[in-house]
Amino acid sequence: MAVLIHIVASNSKICLHINGGPHVLFCFLLFLLIFLVHQVLDGGAFVSRPCGSAPFLNHFTLKTLVSLQVYLAEWSGQKVALCRLASQDYLEDFLHGMGMLQALQDTAVVQLVGLCAEDHSFVTEYHLHCSLLNLEGVFAQEQHQFHDTWQIRLRLALDYVSILLEKTLSQFLLTSDFRLVVNDLDALPKVDVGGGLLVKFGHQELTGDFVAPEQLWPFCNKSLSDDLMPGYDEKTDIWKVPDVTRFIMGGVRGGDLVHFHLFQVHDECKREEPKLRPSALDVLRVYRSVYSIMVRDALKSRDAL
């Protein structure tokens, strides 16, 4: 018998995977009884399902990725995102991503509801607005137009800088209270510049508006070769910051003042030499400072009216 447990209580999480006979089941039921009493007293939440069962109702495909099939599903009356392995060729990446999702649970990471390693699936919270790519479409909706302010947009940019993972915009989810959470953690390699440990993502040439110079193929007279491609570090993320912030800010009123305050740090982010770019912490400090200053000045202006 295999049972998947995911518990949230008092900001702590417990995951159990139980195998065994009747005596193990008895111990489990005893534990469950104790926990339910604790939950009632402490206001926690509890979700459980047997591995391999299908308790999901009315699920349909949200998106299909190379390694992952993502469904919108209903579980215990709640909408959730059901993620299943799409191809055994990507099993290693899938298991790595699932493990990272467990290990990095935080307010900036999509909430893991439960998982089952046996049938290669896991469940996360569902965000109606989906990815950050939908930002303009969301703000265009009548019920969300009052959220379309420089304050909200700059806060989203601050969230992005706070997370700063090797992600595309489609891998950031837009929450209902207009914050960002990172969703896809399949590729999160370790970088150690001092130890000579650098990274390369994929085996194809990278293109696009957000690609840093060191990620481009440097040999014009040679065919693309993964062996010849130099590695790079986290400073590729820093290069992207100004472009992502411009995307997030859009044409919102007051956005020009945001860009003015961020001009210097954005100029530093675009330095050709990666070592000369600021660290993520340095960028985050500037963003927080700019946000605080602009909010304070806006309040002063309002009070003066």
UniProtKB/TrEMBL annotation:
The transmembrane residues are: 21-41
Cellular compartments annotated: Endomembrane system
A biological process from GO: protein O-linked glycosylation
- Kindly indicate where the leader peptide sits in this chain: none
Q: Which keywords does this Swiss-Prot/TrEMBL entry list?
A: ATP-binding, Kinase, Membrane, Nucleotide-binding, Transferase, Transmembrane, Transmembrane helix
One molecular function GO term is: carbohydrate kinase activity
Q: Which Gene3D superfamilies does the entry mention? A: Transferase(Phosphotransferase) domain 1 (1.10.510.10)
Matching InterPro entries: Kinase-like_dom_sf, POMK
Q: Keyword Transcription regulation, does the record have it?
A: no
Q: Which SUPFAM superfamilies match?
A: Protein kinase-like (PK-like)
Gene Ontology cellular component list: endoplasmic reticulum membrane
Q: Does the keyword Repeat apply?
A: no
Q: How does this chain sit within the bilayer?
A: Single-pass membrane protein
Q: State the protein's name.
A: Protein O-mannose kinase
> Where is this protein primarily located?
membrane
